[in-house]
């Protein structure tokens, strides 16, 4: 849930700063910045909560901690890619694929009551999926709308101002 709060706060703060500094609002840019902030937060958390996040992966997977680190790096790279105009469209597609691909680990973690912050099995359980799955859909739609769909409009409007 904190990821959604971070996303929305970063979006609001970015819009406010744009209005204050540039006297205009670039909604698509604010949306990408907000998602980048969220991805950096979640990416860094892969290094802080490595042990707990490795419990979110099925036992049969080898080198689960390495997988957690790699996905953390991917999230940080995705954040950077969203902020670079030449890569944001491709990055958006890759982030959407990433979000779809990590959903099974969230389902697995919920079914096994994984608490990734404490690396224990006293987490919220399956009821967490009622929040997590809709949030994952929001994240996917957010990236599609602000990163993929709105990419050309933002770039062309910014070029016209120069």
UniProtKB/TrEMBL annotation:
<dbReference type="InterPro" id="IPR032808">
    <property type="entry name" value="DoxX"/>
</dbReference>
<keyword id="KW-0472">Membrane</keyword>
<keyword id="KW-1133">Transmembrane helix</keyword>
<feature type="transmembrane region" description="Helical">
    <location>
        <begin position="33"/>
        <end position="54"/>
    </location>
</feature>
<keyword id="KW-0812">Transmembrane</keyword>
<feature type="transmembrane region" description="Helical">
    <location>
        <begin position="129"/>
        <end position="147"/>
    </location>
</feature>
<feature type="transmembrane region" description="Helical">
    <location>
        <begin position="90"/>
        <end position="109"/>
    </location>
</feature>
<dbReference type="Pfam" id="PF07681">
    <property type="entry name" value="DoxX"/>
</dbReference>
<protein>
    <submittedName>
        <fullName>DoxX family membrane protein</fullName>
    </submittedName>
</protein>
<feature type="transmembrane region" description="Helical">
    <location>
        <begin position="66"/>
        <end position="84"/>
    </location>
</feature>
């Amino acid at each position: 849930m904190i990821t959604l709060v971070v996303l929305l706060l970063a979006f609001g703060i970015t819009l406010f700063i744009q209005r204050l500094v540039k006297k205009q609002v670039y909604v698509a840019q604010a949306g990408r910045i907000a998602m980048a902030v969220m991805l950096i937060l979640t990416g860094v958390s892969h290094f802080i909560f490595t042990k707990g996040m490795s419990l979110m992966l099925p036992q049969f997977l080898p080198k689960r901690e390495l997988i957690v680190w790699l996905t953390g790096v991917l999230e940080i790279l995705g954040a950077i890619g969203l902020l670079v105009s030449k890569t944001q469209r491709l990055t958006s597609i890759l982030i959407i694929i990433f979000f779809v691909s990590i959903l099974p680990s969230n389902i697995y973690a919920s079914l096994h009551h994984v608490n990734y912050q404490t690396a224990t099995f006293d987490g919220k359980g399956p009821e967490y999926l009622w929040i997590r799955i809709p949030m994952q859909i929001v994240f996917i739609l957010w990236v599609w709308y602000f990163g993929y769909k709105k990419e050309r409009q933002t770039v062309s409007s910014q070029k016209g101002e120069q």
